[in-house]
Write a sequence for this structure.
C-alpha cells in the first residue's frame, strides 16, 4: 500500500512539472505573438 501511494505521489509530481512547463511555453508563445503584433503595428505607423 505504501509503495502504491509513493508511486501515485511520484506521478502527481511529474504531472505538476509537466503543467509548469506547459504554462511556461504558453507564456513564451503569448510573448512572441504580442511582439509580432507590436512589430507589425510599428511598421504600419512608419509607413
Amino acid at each position: 500500500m505504501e509503495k502504491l501511494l509513493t508511486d501515485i505521489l511520484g506521478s502527481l509530481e511529474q504531472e505538476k512539472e509537466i503543467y509548469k512547463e506547459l504554462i511556461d511555453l504558453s507564456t513564451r508563445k503569448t510573448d512572441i505573438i504580442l511582439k509580432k503584433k507590436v512589430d507589425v503595428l510599428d511598421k504600419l505607423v512608419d509607413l
